[in-house]
Specification:
alpha+beta; Growth Hormone, Chain: A; 3 domains; four-stranded antiparallel sheet; flat
C-alpha cells in the first residue's frame, strides 16, 4: 500500500538527522517607531526605548480605559472561552482548516449526545425500566443489559483485529462510514420497544454498530489532529478537542432530556404511539448529524497522500501535461469519500499494489522474466483491465511505490510506458513538496 507522505517545510535537517524544535512559549518582538512590541501567547505589550537604552513598559492607550464595562467583560469572556477550548496561541498554532472542522464537529457531537439520551430511554423502556417500579424485573434487565454489551464488545475486538489497519489509508471515507454506523445503531435502539422478544439481538447489534463507530472515531482522530498541528502541539490540540467534546456532550444531554420530556407531554393526549414520534424525531436529527459530519470532513485539508489523493495528482498531471502540481486544497476538494464510483476510485481499484505472483501471472506466462530479472524494482503486468505490480524485496520502498504507481496510471491512460524525463520531472516536483513519513 502507499504509505502516507507528509508535508513538513519548517524542519531543520542536518547530516540526515531530522530535528524538530518545539517551544512551550514563543515570544516575537517587533521594533517599530522606537518601540518594542512584544507578542506572547496572544497578548501584546509595548515598551519605550529612551536615549539611554532604558526600556519602560507603556501603559495601555487612553481609549482602552474608556471602554465600557460590558465590552471589557465581553473580551474577558472570549479570552476565557479561547483558553478553555482552543489551543494555545490560536490561530497561529493550527492550520486554517482547524476552526471550520471543529465547528461542524461540535454541532455533530451535540446532536449525537441528544440522540444518545433518547435512544437510551428507548432501551430502558424495552426492558421495562420506565414503565413502573412494580413491573420492573431488575435482575433480568441487568442480565440482558450486560449481555448486549458483552456480545457487542466481543464482535468489536474481532473487527478491530482485521480492519483497523485500513483507517490510516482512507481516513475521510472510514470516518464518514463511522457516522453512518453510529446513526444506524441509534435508530435500531429506538426500535427496540417494538421488538421486546428480540431485545438481546437488536440491542447487541446496535451496541456493536455504535462501538464500531467509536473505534473508527478513535482511530482517525489522531491523524486528524496531527494534520491541524503547526507547532508540534498535538497534545494541546488533543486535550482541547476533549474539552470541546465534553461541552458538546453536556449541551446535547440537556437538549435530549428536554426534547424527550416535551415530546412525551405534547403527544401524550394523541392516539399516535410516542415511540413512533420519537423515532421520527431521532431520524431527522440523525440526518442532520450525518450532514454535519460530511461538512466537517469536506473542510479538512489533509497534507498526506493516500492512494486516492495520489491518483488525483498523477491523473491530472498526465491529462493536463502540466508542469506544476495541484494544490492541497484542489486535491482534497476532488476527493470523494461517500461514493466509490467516480473515475479516481475506478482507477484506484484497477491498480493492485504489492500483488501476489499468482494474481499477477495467472497463466504463468512471463513468470520467467520475473525470476531472471536482476537488480529490478518491480514488475507490472496487465490483464483483465487491471494492473498488478509485484515488488522485489531489496528495492527502495518509498520511491518504488510512487514510481510504479505513476507507471501504472500512465499505462492505463496512454496505453504505453511514460517517457523517463516526464516521470523524473514529476517525481522531483512531488518529492520537493511532500515528505515521506
Amino acid at each position: 500500500m502507499i504509505k502516507s507522505l507528509n508535508l513538513h517545510r519548517n524542519i531543520f535537517i542536518k547530516n540526515n538527522i531530522t530535528t524538530i524544535f518545539s517551544f512551550r512559549c514563543f515570544t516575537s518582538i517587533t521594533n517599530k517607531y522606537n518601540k518594542l512590541i512584544e507578542t506572547s501567547n496572544g497578548k501584546t505589550k509595548e515598551y519605550k526605548i529612551d536615549s539611554d537604552c532604558k526600556i519602560t513598559e507603556l501603559s495601555p492607550p487612553p481609549h482602552q480605559h474608556q471602554t465600557s464595562l460590558i465590552t471589557n467583560e465581553k473580551k474577558k469572556g472570549i479570552e476565557i472561552v479561547k483558553r478553555l477550548f482552543l489551543p494555545s496561541d490560536y490561530p497561529n498554532s493550527v492550520s486554517k482548516d482547524y476552526l471550520p472542522y471543529q465547528k461542524w464537529m461540535f454541532a455533530q457531537n451535540v446532536l449525537g449526545s441528544a440522540t444518545y439520551v433518547l435512544s437510551t430511554h428507548a432501551l430502558l423502556s424495552s426492558v421495562g425500566v420506565s414503565s413502573s417500579i412494580s413491573t420492573t424485573l431488575p435482575f433480568a434487565a441487568a442480565i440482558a443489559w450486560v449481555l448486549k454489551d458483552g456480545l457487542g464488545a466481543t464482535a468489536l475486538v474481532l473487527f478491530a483485529s482485521r480492519y483497523s489497519s485500513l483507517f490510516d489509508f482512507d481516513l475521510k471515507k472510514y470516518k464518514f462510514r463511522g457516522d453512518i454506523l453510529h446513526n444506524l445503531g441509534v435508530l435500531l435502539e429506538m426500535c427496540t420497544p417494538f421488538l421486546p422478544g428480540y431485545f438481546l439481538v437488536s440491542a447487541s447489534i446496535s451496541n456493536l454498530s455504535k462501538g464500531l463507530a467509536g473505534l473508527i472515531y478513535g482511530s482517525t482522530r489522531a491523524s486528524l489532529n496531527r494534520s491541524f498541528s503547526k507547532k508540534e502541539n498535538l497534545g494541546d490540540i488533543t486535550a482541547k478537542y476533549q474539552s470541546q467534546s465534553m461541552a458538546a456532550y453536556l449541551t446535547g444531554m440537556a437538549i435530549g432530556s428536554t426534547s424527550g420530556i416535551l415530546l412525551n407531554d405534547v403527544f401524550s393526549h394523541l392516539h399516535y404511539s410516542p415511540h413512533l414520534l420519537n423515532i421520527a424525531f431521532v431520524f431527522n436529527i440523525s440526518m442532520i448529524h450525518l450532514y454535519c459530519g460530511y461538512r466537517a470532513l469536506k473542510s479538512v485539508q489533509l497534507k498526506t497522500l493516500n492512494k486516492k489523493r495520489a491518483t488525483i495528482i498523477i491523473e491530472n498531471w498526465i491529462q493536463s501535461n502540466s508542469t506544476s502540481l495541484m494544490t492541497i486544497e484542489d486535491v482534497n476538494n476532488l476527493e470523494s469519500f461517500i461514493l466509490s464510483n467516480d473515475k479516481y476510485s475506478k482507477l484506484c481499484d484497477s491498480v493492485h499494489l504489492g500483488s501476489s505472483i499468482k494474481d499477477a501471472f495467472p497463466t504463468n506466462q512471463g513468470i520467467d522474466q520475473l525470476i531472471n530479472t536482476k537488480n529490478g524494482e518491480y514488475v507490472i503486468t496487465h490483464h483483465s483491465d487491471n494492473i498488478y505490480i509485484v515488488y522485489y524485496e531489496n528495492s527502495d520502498t518509498k520511491h518504488r511505490v510512487l514510481k510504479s504507481y505513476f507507471h501504472a496510471l500512465w499505462f492505463l491512460s496512454k496505453n504505453k510506458i511514460p517517457p523517463s524525463l516526464r516521470l523524473c520531472h514529476f517525481k522531483t516536483k512531488l518529492i520537493n513538496n511532500f515528505q515521506f513519513s
